[in-house]
User: Fold this.
Amino acid sequence: DVSTFANVNLGLSQDIENSPSVWALADISPEALDIALVKNNVIEFSRNLNWSKPAIKDAKETSNSAELEGLSAEITKTLIVELQQALSSCRSIEDNELVGHIFLTGSGVLTPHIAQQLEKETEVSTTALQSPESVNTLESSSLTLTSLGLGLREMKKQIIETNLLPQDLRPKRKKVNLKVTLALAAAVVLLLAGWFVNRVVYTNKAL
Assistant:
């Protein structure tokens, strides 16, 4: 998934306390929940849950605080279940390895509420995904951060690189036919030799 790849690269550009070897990213939207598990700078597992939560889009800073807390609690509960499912399904992460940090993105004004509840329930440091300090942005919306994560590929080499083009649109490498190559090389040599001999004959006649 393009957004997961972009957001993970953005996460890798940020400082995480104690630099844990395993961390998670949760992309929360009204249509879906995407979870990625990263171990030693490699995406080991990603999980997608389709849901319908238009209240996430409708939530505003001016909304009733009790409603925000209630919606955040609902999302947090589902998020914990999905994180546990992702960890149990990922063979690359051992049972004794713990998630050391969780990044959140896409949940708008609910993010601080979810982060607080998630950190309380899991005892895992949880923060909102942010743009790097070296990049100034007017907003930190999910789309802005995803675009920024993709844009970083053009600024410098990223830890995680991938070809985002569909398989059928990627340029295909043609295999070199050694026999044809040798034949062409021999033909060029013969042409050059013929040209050289012709020049020598022409020069002798002129003399």
